[in-house]
Amino acid sequence: MKREQITLPLPAKAPTAKAPIGPKAAPVVKAKAPTVRRSWEPGVKPPHVGPTPQRLAKLKASEQRRVELKAAKASAATLKQAELRVIKDDEAWAQDRYRQDSPFAPANIPAPEMESAIKNIARWRKAPWLFVRDVFKLEPDLWQDEALHALIESGFDKFCMKACKGPGKSCLLAWVIWWFLLCFSHPKVIVTSITESNLNDNLWAELAKWRNKSEMLGALFEYQSSQIYSKDHPDTWFCSPRTWPKDADKTKQAQTLAGLHAQNTLLVLDESGGIPTGVLVAGLAHHSTFDPSGKAKETHLTFIAGNPDDVDSSLGWACTENARDWWVREITGDPDDSKRSPRIDKTWAQKMIDTFGRDNPWVLVNVFGKFPPVGSNKLLGSDQVRHAMEFAPEPQTYEGYDRIMTLDVARSTGRDRSVLGRRQGSVFFPFKIYRLADAVDLAGQVAFEFAR
After folding, report:
1. Is a pLDDT exceeding 50 seen at residue 103?
2. Sheet holding 228-230, edge to edge
3. Which range in 226-230, 320-324, 425-429 is most confidently predicted, on average pLDDT?
4. CA distances to 286, 411, 413, 447, 449 from 442, in Å
5. What is the pLDDT of residues 58-72, one digit of tens each?
6. Domain extent listing, the chain
7. What 3-state DSSP class applies to 187?
8. What is the predicted pLDDT for the residue at 269?
9. Contact, 427 vs 398, CB < 8 A?
10. Which helix (H) or strand (E) holds 423?
11. Does this model's pTM top 0.85?
12. Domain 143-331, architecture per CATH
């Protein structure tokens, strides 16, 4: 059988679109389909489409934070403007003090030092540690550097140096005084010590020493035995010494530092371990000066230093009863302390310890910079009393013992008071104080306490 070849027809091809000849055809833009919004049937509550209560709370908190942040930025901007204004004023003041037509600036101050002061006066005001390094060309000891930083960074305006013998207390005080005189406008500085001769031979001589180390300070300030003052503002820009007679009573002593008031004031007490507390308390009144308008920025500082000879002194009061208001630094010469003052001879300190013992009052004061445990006219020291007041005994240590009562009867009910003391075992309870005119009423109160 003969096979025949069959040819099937191919499917027809789709016509191919030819590119248009001539100008380019405009592109075809497809229209968007209209949005279909579904409506809810009447009577059917639609689902919640707004923010949830939790989201609303977060939004409210976020808005509150935004408002607070805006206020903080505004406050920071205001403070920054005030700070820049102060810096600008300081620089303007420096320019004025070093102006070319000044009778003392161009001739007496070297040009590099003059230019440095103009640029750095505002920086020194906020960094007394840089002032010491730039002006006196030296590196302070560790404890001195800490005190200089504390003037700006601690947040305190009262500073207390409780020190051993010879670590450089007067040196630090002199630096602080020169920093304040140079970097603040129209300052008033008052300094005192235990006696006039002590002040003249120590701190006042130290001020002269450091003035002679800086040609700038020598050109700007006049040094006399009775006062240090600015050459161009002698009546309002000064540092004065004050002392009191040896036979002065407490009232006259307290009046020694009275009347210190200005926009910028500094009170300095050297050898404060021997200065009566009333002198310091009266002097602290200079912190009360305040500008109600807030336009003038005021600075009031108090700086005291001394050996801890007597806890009843100004130094003792600042370190114990009023310590919460003071930045206190203890400077020691202990050979075993890593933070000891390097100016105390280790050999001498160790010899004193070996000779008299570490608990000797003289060693505590002069080597360790600590108050002695007991004063010469006291049975108990302040540290012992403070430790006893903080001690909390357990009830079983005294409950089984007899109760003992003592009574000091007032002679005059107008001025005096009757005091009842109660002791059981080793525990003495707080005093009961009465101001009763009738002895029968007092006896009734004592009987009531006895029955308890």
Report:
1. no
2. 221-223, 228-230, 238-241, 188-192, 264-269, 299-306, 158-163, 327-331
3. 226-230
4. 46, 13, 11, 9, 11
5. 777 777 777 777 776
6. 143-331, 395-451
7. coil
8. 93
9. yes
10. strand 418-424
11. no
12. 3-Layer(aba) Sandwich (3.40)
